[in-house]
Write a structure and sequence with these properties.
Layout lengths: L1 H16 L4 E4 L22 H6 L3 E3 L12 E6 L22 E6 L5 E5 L10 E11 L8 E7 L6 E8 L8 E9 L1 H4 L3 H4 L4 E7 L12 E12 L3 H20 L1
Antiparallel strand pairs: 1-11, 2-5, 3-4, 4-11, 5-10, 6-9, 6-11, 7-8, 7-10
Helix pairs in contact: 1-5
Bound molecules: calcium ion (CA) (2 copies).
C-alpha cells in the first residue's frame, strides 16, 4: 500500500515538473505613460524627436508614429472627462495609468501601427497571447479594429493570428480587453519557414474606411504579450512516462 502511494506520487510529481511556465514579453512603453503629458495633453510636432527615437514603432505612413499633417496620427494622449468619465486628474477612469494612444486621422483610409519592441522570436511549443485594451470615447464610435500577431524580419511578415473587433463592440465610455491566442498547435505549421523570425504586433484601424461606420479615433492602451512554454517532445515523453506510471499503479491496485 505504501509502495503504491509513493509510486503514484512519483508519477504525479514527474508530470507536474513538466507543467508550463508563463513568460511576459516586454513591450516598450506598453501603457504609453511616457513621456508624461498634462491633462488633455498630447504629443505634437514638437515631440517628433521623441517618436524618431522610438525605433520599435512603425507607422503606416513610414513616419515613426506621428504624422505632422494630422492626416493620420498615433499619438500619446492624456484624456479628459469629456473623453472618458473620470479621466481628468487623477485619471481614475482609464484602463491602465493616465495615458493611452489616440489613433485616428481625417482621411477616409485605414491605418496601422506595428510594434517590434523587440518582442523575441517565433519558437515552437509555445502558446502565445496578445492582449490590448480598447476604449470607446464617451461621445464617440469605436472604429473597426484588428489586432495582429505577425512573424517576420520586415514589413512583409507572415500573419500568424488576428482578431477583428467590429464597429462599436466596446460599450460607450468604457474599456474592454481583447486577446489573441496562438496555440502551439496553431503555430506549428509556421515553424518550418518562419521559426526564429521576429515577432511583430500590429494594431490596425479602419478609421473612416468602411461606409456607414462613422468612426472616431481608436483609443488603445496596455499592450501585453506573453507566452506559455508547452512541453517539447522530450518533456512529453517524460510526461507520458509519468502518466504511465500512475496508470500502471492504478491498474495493479
Ligand atoms: Ca496607459
Ligand atoms: Ca486625464
Amino acid at each position: 500500500m505504501l509502495n503504491r502511494i509513493s509510486m503514484t506520487a512519483a508519477g504525479l510529481l514527474l508530470a507536474m515538473t513538466c507543467a508550463a511556465n508563463a513568460y511576459v514579453i516586454p513591450v516598450d512603453n506598453h501603457s504609453f505613460e511616457a513621456p508624461v503629458r498634462s491633462n488633455g495633453g498630447y504629443l505634437s510636432t514638437a515631440d517628433e524627436a521623441f517618436w524618431f527615437s522610438q525605433t520599435a514603432w512603425h507607422h503606416s505612413l513610414g513616419y515613426p508614429t506621428y504624422d505632422n499633417s494630422s492626416i493620420q496620427y498615433f499619438i500619446i494622449y492624456n484624456p479628459v472627462d469629456g473623453n472618458f468619465t473620470g479621466s481628468d486628474t487623477p485619471n481614475t477612469g482609464l484602463s491602465d495609468g493616465s495615458q493611452g494612444i489616440d489613433m485616428g486621422g481625417s482621411n477616409p483610409q485605414s491605418l496601422w501601427q506595428k510594434i517590434t519592441s523587440p518582442l523575441g522570436t517565433l519558437e515552437p511549443y509555445r502558446d502565445y497571447s496578445l492582449t490590448v485594451s480598447i476604449g470607446r470615447y464617451a461621445a464617440g464610435n469605436q472604429p473597426r479594429l484588428e489586432l495582429r500577431l505577425i512573424s517576420g524580419n520586415d514589413f512583409t511578415g507572415t500573419l500568424l493570428e488576428q482578431l477583428v473587433i467590429p464597429y462599436n463592440t466596446v460599450a460607450n465610455d468604457s474599456f474592454q480587453d481583447f486577446t489573441i491566442n496562438l496555440s502551439r498547435l496553431e503555430a506549428l505549421p509556421f515553424m518550418g519557414a518562419h521559426q526564429g523570425e521576429s515577432l511583430v504586433v500590429e494594431l490596425y484601424s479602419y478609421q473612416f474606411a468602411i461606409p456607414g461606420e462613422i468612426g472616431n479615433s481608436a483609443f488603445l492602451d496596455n499592450v501585453r504579450l506573453s507566452y506559455v512554454d508547452a512541453p517539447e517532445p522530450a518533456s512529453l515523453s517524460l510526461l507520458a512516462l509519468g502518466s504511465a506510471m500512475v496508470l500502471r499503479r492504478r491498474r495493479s491496485a
